[in-house]
## 1
Amino acid sequence: MTSLPVVSGVDSPGTADGPRLNAGLPRHVTSHMSGGRDLWSDPMVEAPDDPEAAVWDCLQEVLDPEIPISLVELGLVYGVSFDEGEATIRLTFTATACPCMEFIREDITDRLEQESWVRGVRIEEVWDPPWTTDRISDEGRRKLRELGVGA
Amino acid sequence: MSDHLDVSALDADQRAALHRFLVSLADSKRILGIRYSDWLLGAPSIETGIATSSMAQDEWGHARLLYSMLKELDVDPVEVEHDRGDEDYASVDPLDEPFGDWAAVIAGMVVVDGALATLLESFSRGRFEPATMRVPKMLDEEAFHWSLASAWFRRLATSSSASARGKLSDATRAMLPPVLAWLGAEDEADDRLVELGVLEPAADRVRAFRDRVRDILAQGGIDVDEAEPSDGWDAARRRGPGHPGHEATERARGDRNRMLFVE
């Protein structure tokens, strides 16, 4: 079982009356099959020489749940770092109330944690600069055009 | 920018002022989202209902980001969002009751949502770093709200139906005084935020709001420059007396889902 992505504010210790958050739910559920999971590569056999680049490669395989291009091509990944086995992803969303936030966090975490050299995944939610369609890569635009979507 | 506010250096009064302001904004967004959501299936057209539903979604996204800024003050936003009584809510007064008709919804989009956007613009230009980082995205989304609001206001204001025009005018005129009081709060706590460079002076905020809505409201025969702020001010919550109805706060808190509490 994978761990819950690190999202500030979620892991409340509860109150004197007992735990409140997630009280009736399993700790973590992979709740969907979006993100093109069937297209993910098999885990790498050996740890990569350049883990940051390898993290980017993994994220390239994670698709937006609503638009079948990758999060990287959509321009949602603002940065990646890797330190002592922990991958930190600076991630934004297309909208402040994006209904797929949790799906996207799960997909990123699950894709990365299938790699033996990744011991943890930290997702930092960022909003600066604000995402606009200008951040879609040329390759992303080409794929969207093939799908009949203008951007 | 290196001129960001050092939150750790604030004294107790300054922290309380920032806390009060954040809750005032976040609660207003949360309750406005609820008021919009009531119209998903009640708007004059399906398309408009869906648009209003999307605006409700945006408002809750904004509320979430604003509540999360409380962490800068070492305050648990989950407690604030889910563990307060009705009388603790600090949303702006016109949201205390549901919008009574579509004209009131449109008046709310222009006056209340417009005032919120004005205040957020001021906040984003200040020294509180989380606001400078997160509010611009909210304002991008608010631009779509304003397009719908201004188009519908014009449509109702120029309607051949005297009843529609009258309802729009009545709702707008009722909302303006408490919103002006809310925008231009000149009390000690907001003064502290102005001194800290977190907010622009009250007079500037009110002027920006009047400039924003002047031409739109004029189409409905309303002169925003004649409107005066209402009396009565609850300094503890940064709003007038009263509070949103229980039917709204129980949804805001998620009372019926507490056994399955997830953020």
## 2
Amino acid sequence: MNQYEVTFIIDPVLSGDEIKSTASMYESLLKDQGCTIVHVNEIGLKQLAYPINKKSSGIYYCIEFTTPVGSIISKVELALRRDERIMRFLTVKLDKYGVKYNEDRRSGKITSYKKKESKKKTFDSGVAAAPAGAEVVKPEAEPVGISEEE
Amino acid sequence: MASRDDIKFLSNPSIGQQKKKYCRFRKFGIKYIDYKDSEFLLQFVNEQGKLLPRRITGNSLKYQKLVAVAVKRARHLAILPYVTDLLK
């Protein structure tokens, strides 16, 4: 059983219902092929980094699923390629770290990059504090040496 | 009284010493790089959206390769640009 993740961008020109039906259509397609859906991540409307089909935004969806047979991927990709409502898609096979990352993300252990950054900052400050502490210790030790000389 | 020990601290010893670079993935135990996290990936590209070399980011070879793959996936999905100016 391999776990995969398919991310696609839906045309933002469509109405809200159409967008939802498009996403659920692919969910049911995957289910029909014998996959089990692990999670559907509705990322939502995002600004594109560069225009695709003269559009500057798109609706991102990410479906995670497990499948016993890898051959269904080509079927799903063919359907995505034929669909005019889909602007871009990407299917990725998740390794064990990817599966764990997504689980942690869903359970809220990893929320966003900003949290990681704050963690890093505390680490950095800890590293920075250690040499400072060492410097503080040194002058304390030196007067002892001087007194010994005296 | 300025003895030799005091003179040692007149100049900041940390100036002129390069801070040792390290691989953040090794250090913090990050095993998976998410291609959907644009904020995180922005650390590994320059202002034109090009990948930064290992000599600057300090990543180990294993993780630099994974970063490169993640950035390329993000570019395909229009999360990161292929070419720009003034990205940051």
